[in-house]
Amino acid sequence: MRHGKKFNHLGRTASHRAAMLSNMASSLIMHKRIVTTVAKAKALRVFVEPIITRSKDASTHNYRTAFSYLKDKHAVTELFTVVGGKVANRAGGYTRILKTGNRAGDNAEMAMIELVDFNEFFEGFNADKKKSTTRRSRRAGTSAKTAAPAAVVAEAVVEEVVAEEVATIESPVVDETPAAEETPAVDETPAVDEAPAADDASEETK
Questions:
Q1: Which residues contact 147 (CB under 8 A, 6 or more apart)?
Q2: pTM flag (> 0.90)
Q3: CA-wise closest residue to 118 among 164, 82, 170, 92
Q4: What is the DSSP letter of 7?
Q5: 128 and 73 in contact (C-beta within 8 Å)?
Q6: DSSP code of 20?
Q7: What span, in angstroms and rounded, lies between the C-alpha atoms of 52 and 83?
Q8: Which of 79, 98, 118, 126 could be 32's S-S partner, Cβ–Cβ 3.0 to 4.6 Å?
Q9: Is 94 exposed, middle or buried (0-12, 13-18, 19+ CB in 10 A)?
């Protein structure tokens, strides 16, 4: 009985299925994309992505584990030398399945499975594509128009506040210091000069 076994057997025995997926995985690694049926592409994605994850760490154990699944030394070398460095910064999802229509003979649903990081067309498209908001209501346009004036007004207010603070800090220091020094000098000088003059006048009268 196969209770709870929900994976697709693909109409093959276990050994035949494993051999087929091994060959398809080697072809995908060597050519970076292959065309097959949708059912086989989905089964291949589950089979090959854990192997690609192992290629990030080029240890002896990972080499032997990958070779036990692929059975092809050229595919293993390509996996660890080229693919592993390309997908080093990706956390998962190394493959992409694109449906291509139905096959003419038996009307089977066909698809192309490829390695995501080796598609130059999509890489250039994503680099040139500008980010856009996902909100579709009319409020998004009005908010974008009012955002710019608000920012300009805020910057002007900040500049004015800064200018006022600088003026209040600098002006008392410049104005009050000379006044405090000059006032005693003007008052004390006549007092010193008038005292001898009074003494001279008294002596002349005597």
A1: none
A2: no
A3: 82
A4: S
A5: no
A6: H
A7: 8
A8: 118
A9: buried
Walk along the chain (206 residues) and give the pLDDT tens digit of each residue: 879 988 999 999 999 999 999 999 999 999 999 999 999 999 999 999 999 999 999 999 999 999 999 999 999 999 999 999 999 999 999 999 999 999 999 999 999 999 999 987 766 555 555 555 566 665 655 554 544 554 555 556 556 766 666 566 555 544 454 554 554 544 554 554 555 555 555 555 54
Rounded Cα–Cα distance for residues 44 and 47 (Å): 5
**Distances from the Cα of 153 to the Cαs of 95, 159, 161, 165, in angstroms?**
49, 10, 12, 19
User: Could you tell me where the DSSP H helices lie in the chain?
Assistant: 14-31, 38-54, 60-70, 73-78, 84-86, 120-128, 139-205
